[in-house]
Amino acid sequence: MLKYGIGRLLVIAAGALSVLIPAQLGAQVLDQPVAIVRFEETVNIGQRELRRQVEFIEQQIQQRLTKDHRKEVLEAKIAEVLIMQAAERDGIEVSRGELQQGIDQQRQSVNRQLSEEQFRDLIEREMDMEWDEYVDEVRQRLVQERYVLESRREMFEAVENPSEREIRRVYEENASEFMNPAMIRFNHIFFDTRNVESSARSEKREKADELWSEIVTGERSFEDIMRAADDDTTFSGGDFGYLLRGEYQNLSVLGQDFIDEMFELEEGDVEGVIESNAGYHIVQVRDRRRARVLDLDDPLFPGQNVTVRNQIENYLMMEEQQSLFQRALQEVVDELRDEADVTVYEDRLDW
């Protein structure tokens, strides 16, 4: 079922347009209203704009909407008009910082690796929407959410933390989802060969072999060479962090052969020279972990403070808040509908 807007907020005050033509032919209406909302202001919701929104939804879900679904889309638009006017009446606003945070959250929900410029291009290209129009849409969504939250503040303040029984039920029903893949953490002395000529690549390999020979013979330690990277521009050194088995990004950047070779090593091993798609590595394994199902109080990732329990608590709280928000939204819209004069032309939803 389609619900009142909040997800995609297109608050359109589309008046009925007419064109002046010879008097004997009368007035020809270009865009007839499917609803008229009289509240703080009068807003005509035009059929053409509603059709455009319906077509957008149909493209997203790859399914044609029925007349009942179109009516739900219209009801959502009416709700948005009412809430925006009520919010303006009550002085509800969002700051520039809150607006930017809302945009950042949407960008990261699409892809955490997207830059702001890439995200802007995606919006304009994929959604066929000007950036300023998108920003205004986000602003309207945030204003509407704030109006509902402030109008029903007591409902949200009464939300209780999930019980131990609820947490354990979710964990036991989804235990196989709380799993760490095999992972290995290592320090490395690294020679980057990306975007370099073949001659420079050969020089880097020779240098890597030379340093590895010094480690094997005991002339210098791995740690000494890694620290020396601070003063040597030909290579770098430091903590790679955790390399996760099966992670697509690692596979793309480093290559399958490198990953397979790394996971043959054990904690404390020093190995070199290992070639990846990115360059040459001399590695020192700091930690080696097998794949395993996490217990309820295990951290989600080594070194993190967030545990499986924390994640389940957050999930249950969010689920409860979303359910409350839908109830609060319905109550608010019903109240505003009672205050307003709304006329709907259902026969104009046939097309």
In N-to-C order, the SSE pattern is EEEEHHHHHHHEEHHEHHEEEHE
The strand order across the widest sheet is: 7-6-9-8
The CATH homology group name of the largest domain:
Porin chaperone SurA, peptide-binding domain
N/C terminus separation: 20 Å
Assign the CATH architecture of the largest domain: Orthogonal Bundle
Secondary structure tally: strands:
11
Overall radius of gyration: 30 Å
Percent strand: 15-25%
Q: What's the mean pLDDT score?
A: 89
* Class computed from helices, strands and strand pairing: alpha+beta
Range of helix content: 40-55%
What name does the CATH topology of the largest domain carry?
Answer: Triger factor/SurA peptide-binding fold
The major pleated sheet works out as: 4 strands, antiparallel
Q: What is the highest CATH level, the class of the largest domain?
A: Mainly Alpha
Question: Globular, elongated, flat, extended or rod-shaped: what is the shape?
Answer: elongated
Domain unit count: 2
- The number of helices is 12
Low confidence ranges = 1-29
